[in-house]
């Protein structure tokens, strides 16, 4: 069997697993396919374009600035957040934003948290109609320059 020492090590390692896998794919909940179907099968590229274009994902980011929002899709919705991880101004190019969002959508069907090109991407399909993802503050980008 296991000694007390081995059990302590196992318990410690088991407790550390969630901390070490904080970034990555979610394993439960609605999928991007469900969001796509509820939005009329417009396709993942159209959803990515909405996040990066009209949703404000691509563009100029002061240090640590973030953009967040929600896409409605019938009985499901998708929350998203894109944050500049750098301690300096950075621009997120539209094509890099699209590539990053599509990479996560195709790799992580239930959503994900991941870093790409100096930015943190949180992309999460959820049950229920549109939900407002409130900003951390009411400051505008101009307040960061």
Content-based structural category: alpha+beta
Tell me how many strands there are. 7
Radius of gyration: 18 Å
Biggest sheet, strands in spatial order?
1-6-7-4-3
Q: In sequence order, what are the helices and strands, one letter per element?
A: HEHHEEEEHEE
CATH architecture: 2-Layer Sandwich
If helices are DSSP runs of H or I spanning 4 or more residues, what is the number of helices? 4
Approximate strand percentage: 25-35%
Looking at the structure, the CATH topology is Killer Toxin P4, Chain A
- The whole-number mean of residue pLDDT values reads 79
CATH class reads Alpha Beta
The share of residues in helices is: 25-40%
How many domains? The number is 1
Signal peptide: 1-22
Keywords: Signal
Organism: Fusarium pseudoanthophilum
Protein name: Secreted protein
Question: How is the topology of this model organized?
Answer:
Layout: H1 4-20, E1 24-25, H2 32-38, H3 44-54, E2 59-61, E3 66-73, E4 76-84, E5 90-92, H4 94-107, E6 112-116, E7 119-127
Antiparallel strand pairs: 1-6, 2-5, 3-4, 4-7, 6-7
Helix pairs in contact: 3-4
Signal peptide: 1-22
Keywords: Signal
Organism: Fusarium pseudoanthophilum
């Amino acid at each position: 069997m296991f000694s007390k020492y081995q059990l302590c090590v196992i318990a410690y390692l088991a407790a550390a697993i969630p901390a070490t896998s904080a970034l990555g794919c979610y394993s439960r909940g609605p999928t991007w396919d469900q969001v796509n179907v509820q939005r009329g099968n417009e396709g993942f590229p159209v959803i990515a374009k909405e996040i990066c274009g009209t949703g404000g994902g691509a563009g100029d980011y002061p240090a640590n600035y973030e953009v967040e929002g929600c896409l409605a899709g019938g009985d499901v919705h998708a929350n998203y957040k894109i944050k500049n991880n750098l301690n300096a101004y950075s621009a997120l190019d539209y094509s890099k934003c699209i590539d990053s969002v599509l990479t996560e959508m195709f790799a992580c069907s239930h959503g994900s948290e991941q870093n790409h090109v100096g930015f943190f991407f949180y992309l999460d399909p959820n049950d229920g109609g549109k939900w407002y993802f409130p900003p951390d503050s009411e400051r505008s980008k101009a307040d960061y320059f």
